[in-house]
Amino acid sequence: MDVDKLNFIKKSFIDFNGKTEKVIIYRNRGETDFHFEFKCPKCGENNDFTSELKSEKRKIEGKNKEVYIFNCAKCGNTYSIERLKPSRVSSKK
Ligand SMILES: [Zn+2]
């Protein structure tokens, strides 16, 4: 991963049955697919693959939120992480 070439990066956490693992999603400038890097908390697979980034609107705690959806390449378990709005927007009340 070359930080100077990134045009998108999202770091977050995923969990399965109380086990939490880090996930990094990033894309390099000039690329159409995103890189997914995470250890699957369900099966322990070290995922490192490229794919399109899928997002979906969900209602969480009564609010409409957008989440990114991806799967473990080995066991197929689905994970989602919340797409956070820029902090300058959420700090306005
Ligand atoms: Zn897995």
Short description:
4% of the residues lie in helices and 58% in strands. It has 93 residues and is mostly beta strands. It has one domain.
Fold and architecture overview:
With 93 residues, the protein is mainly β. The chain has one helix at 87-90; strands spanning 6-16, 19-28, 34-39, 46-51, 54-60, 63-71, 78-82. It has one domain (3-82). It has one helix and seven strands; from the N terminus they run E-E-E-E-E-E-E-H. The strands form two sheets. The chain has a four-stranded antiparallel beta sheet, with no helix packed on it. Strands 5-6-7 form a three-stranded antiparallel beta sheet, with no helix packed on it. The longest helix has 4 residues, at 87-90. The radius of gyration is 14 Å and the shape is globular. Mean pLDDT is 90; it is low at 89-93. The structure holds zinc ion. Zinc ion (ZN) binds at residues 40, 42-43, 45, 72, 74-75, 77.
